[in-house]
Request: fold
Amino acid sequence: MDKVKIGTCWLDGCSGCHMSLLDLDEGIVGVLEKADIVFGPLVDAQEWPEGVDVALIEGAVSSQDDLDLALTARERSKIVVALGDCAVTGNVPSMRNGIPTRKLLERVYVEGATEGRGVPTDGVPALLKQAEPLHSAIKVDVHVPGCPPKPDAILFVVGALLEGRMPDLGSKLRFG
Amino acid sequence: MTAGLVTAPPRSEDRDLIDRIIGEQAGHTGALLGILAKLQDHNRDKYLPMETLEYVAKRTGLPESQVYSVATFFALFNLDPQGKHTVAICRGTACHTRGSRALLERVKLQLGMQETGDGADKVALTTPDRRFTIRTVACFGQCALAPVAEIDHSIRGHVTEQALIREVEGLRRERVR
Amino acid sequence: MTEKVKVRIDGEVIAATAGQTILEVARANGKYIPALCYMEGLSAVGACRLCMVEVSGVARLLPACTTPVQEGLAVNTSSPQLESYRKIAIELLLVERNHVCAVCVSSGHCELQTLAQDHGVTYVRYPYNFPRLTVDATHPRYVLDHNRCVLCSRCVRTCAEVEGAHVWDMAGRGIQTRLVSELQRPWGESTTCTSCGKCVQACPTGAMAEKGWGVEEMTKKRAVVSRLSSIREGQ
Ligand code: SF4
Ligand code: SF4
Ligand code: SF4
Ligand code: FES
Ligand code: FES
Reply:
């Protein structure tokens, strides 16, 4: 039987959800018996591959790069999971949303800087007006809130998806 | 300035007026509404200064927060001095689809009003010389005439930018008496 | 005079006292109806619309916290339609202000968060409002964070009805509504606040908290406020 292909990525998040993913301990063995991780921060692949079955996406959509990656992942994956509060609600990254981006950049890179003052323009993706939850940019099939989601919630969701079922978090549902 | 006008802070003659109005309204249901309406009416700049609200609370024995709640709930009450002329632009759905945002922006520009910053749709701005107040209204109930504006209490329908500018310009040229 | 009446809640016949509300009768008999603005010991205002129930013979939904029981009343506390309305009400509360549970003192002990989790709100279908709001930290012992306020008015009623100070009220209307102390004076400069802290204990969310607690650390003693209120009523 062909193994299920999992892709993961983080957009505007702190990588905490990926840490929680690694925290599955022996649970991850069971997952890897049935699935291959074909894309993600722990994998060498440079580009989101075609034909991914399950995409686990951490982080809010905050920059042009986030948006591009989210769109590509959506296009090339069967099921998209919004992993963690940033992807589900915008969470901490969205706390900047009341401030116009120009003011925000100036506050951080000009007023807040002690040296090398100036808003960087080269090699950094343009900030979007607001940091938004993933489902405001692409269709999301499963939401797993939590900051980060508990390993057992992730295992439960991934386990169900590997068996071809849509998970219902029930009492494992937890924000924050 | 004529006697009986309430200005901030309440001077003794203002306090007498407030006391008299409170006395008249005492016992009426919704007395507070009537008191505030009368006081605003007597105010030269058609508003309720904080000092007045404070004094009303003290005299009626109502909690200050409750007085403030009533004064901010009803669109009728102003907490800031109002201009001599009022231009109210409808920002209801019907008027919005017929371009009332452009009318609002245009008249703000004409009177040199600063952008409110947060792009808020709800506006009540007064020019520094207190000659004009621009405000938004949720709906005048005259949607068939959209876009609707009200200039000094007279309702105008099918308002165009040109007509609005002309009218406001007319009021602006008017000599200060 | 306490007139006894019989009502049906989810098919079960229950003895109640006329004048009790549907919510009170349901709670006294271990039946669950979600509620947020209701708090035992305070007047009911019907502000949050979470406690809506179906009453047979009445076409529209009624709030359980303000509807008194009558002889023969038959109530349905859950149905797919009610469940979907409750979810919508919870989602709208979440989009109105900035609820960032990950950095909230009340996370894990918050009534709004619990409601969302209990009703299977895994995400919010409406666009977030992301308003810019202030935090009033002028009081020496307490903070008010408007970002987390659901405008339930439990603090308003607690302060007015239990403490008798009436420091708080609601200013403005619609989406602009804000909780205010006195004439919008900072809480710390309030002349009527006795610093009793009851409003903080009554607040269902992280909007009011004692100073000095970190994320997830603020737990509230709501029962104390309800008990004080019943003592007051007994006097
Ligand atoms: S008050 Fe705090 S814990 Fe409750 S929903 Fe809002 S952010 Fe989350
Ligand atoms: S601390 Fe007590 S007196 Fe002060 S606002 Fe809260 S309930 Fe009212
Ligand atoms: S501060 Fe708390 S108790 Fe008061 S209205 Fe807001 S959420 Fe309700
Ligand atoms: S929307 Fe402007 S009058 Fe109704
Ligand atoms: S609990 Fe009944 S409306 Fe809020």
Q: What stands out?
A: Residues 4-78 of chain C form a domain with the Ubiquitin-like (UB roll) fold (CATH 3.10.20.740). Chain C touches chain B at residues 132, 156, 160, 166-173, 176, 180-185, 192 (CB under 8 Å). The first strand of chain C starts at residue 4 and ends at 9. Chain C has a mean pLDDT of 95.
